[in-house]
Amino acid sequence: MKTMKIDVDIPVSIYKEDDTFIAYCPVLDISTSASSAEKVRDRFHQVVEIFFEETIKKGTLEENLLNYGWKKKKTWTPPAMISCEPEKVSLSLS
What we know:
The protein is built from two helices and five strands. By secondary structure, the chain is of the alpha+beta class. The chain has a domain at 13-69: 2-Layer Sandwich (Double Stranded RNA Binding Domain). The strands form two sheets. It has a three-stranded antiparallel beta sheet with strand order 1-2-3, with helices on one face. The chain has a two-stranded antiparallel sheet with strand order 4-5. A hairpin with a 4-residue loop joins strand 2 and strand 3. The termini are far apart. The model has no long low-confidence stretch (mean pLDDT 91).
């Protein structure tokens, strides 16, 4: 099997809920959690690697990336993150 190496900037948001850190990646729709920010970053890298390994193995990588808005030119590029900030929303719930 041919090994290919690509470097890509993948946006990830890291949240803290109580004592748990959560990393969420909207351009792959994956998340992971850990007890520290450092550990959650390490786990995020592992989860991304597993995502790519498994989708390549299943033959669904291209389909998944296109569904998540990625573009293929010379290499794959994820959609650009424009903003990641709190947005005030007013809701009327009954």
